[in-house]
Amino acid sequence: MNNFYYKRKINIYNLTAHNSIDKNGYCAIWDEKTCGRTANDISSALCIILEKIVSKYPNINCITLWSDSCVSQNKNSIMTFAMTNFIKNHSQINEIIMKFSTPGHGCVQEVDNIHSFVEKAFNNSEYFSLKTLKRLIENSNRKNPYKVIEMQSENFFDYHSCAKLFNYKSIPFSKVFQIRLTRNFFEVEYRLNPSSDFITANIRHYERSFRNTNSNKRN
């Protein structure tokens, strides 16, 4: 009985996003056996969600992202490289703007609402597998069901190793308010507050070429 109790407890991670175009919620879920919740894992999950949105709306050429100011997950070189690589792999995307809320203050009410619906569904149900959890999340809002993506091991990429090939050290990520990425893949524009001008950082530090990270899947 004790062994069964501990075997059935497993951490499940859920990256939640809200698409302002169609007001749909997206949840990328995975368990701790597949990956953790590092910046590399969060970046991979976000890219999968963006793939779904871009495939649905192929005319999108600019993406604006709002997230909290967690440096270890959202505001760092790994996430920045992942978004730069996303632009590189999608010729229709010209710009990605990453905005970060003030620490301690939520920035996206819609995402909080999704979490509220999901928590209510969890409180009224029992779940013992990732498949059951996925169905619970999908049906937690019956008026506008959420799009749930079950992440597989092949969906996680080694953005961390690739980011090391570039010079992100000049960017003070902990102080950054906004980051702007364009098809100039070796420049990162950032500003430290809403009223300041953008500062351009040249990240082309190493001679090794900028390669597609699709060849760097995690094992």
Overview of this protein structure:
The protein has 219 residues and is an alpha/beta fold. The protein has one domain. The protein has helices at residues 2-7, 39-56, 77-89, 109-123, 130-139, 159-163, and strands spanning 12-19, 24-31, 62-67, 95-100, 147-150, 178-182, 187-191, 199-202. The strands form 2 sheets. It has a 5-stranded mixed sheet with strand order 3-4-6-7-8, covered by helices on one side. Strands 1-2-5 form a 3-stranded mixed sheet, with helices on both faces. Strand 7 and strand 8 form a beta hairpin. Helix 2 (39-56) packs parallel to helix 3 and helix 4 (109-123) crosses helix 5 (130-139). The two termini are 34 Å apart. The relative contact order is 0.17.
Outline of this structure?
The chain contains six helices and eight strands, in the order αββαβαβααβαβββ.
List keywords for this structure.
alpha/beta, 5-stranded mixed sheet, 3-stranded mixed sheet, 6 helices, 31% helix, globular
- Care to count the β-strands? 8
Number of helices: 6
What is the count of distinct domains?
1
Radius of gyration, in Å, reads 18 Å
Mean pLDDT, rounded to whole units? 88
Layout of SSEs?
Elements: H1 2-7, E1 12-19, E2 24-31, H2 39-56, E3 62-67, H3 77-89, E4 95-100, H4 109-123, H5 130-139, E5 147-150, H6 159-163, E6 178-182, E7 187-191, E8 199-202
Parallel strand pairs: 2-5, 3-4
Antiparallel strand pairs: 1-2, 4-6, 6-7, 7-8
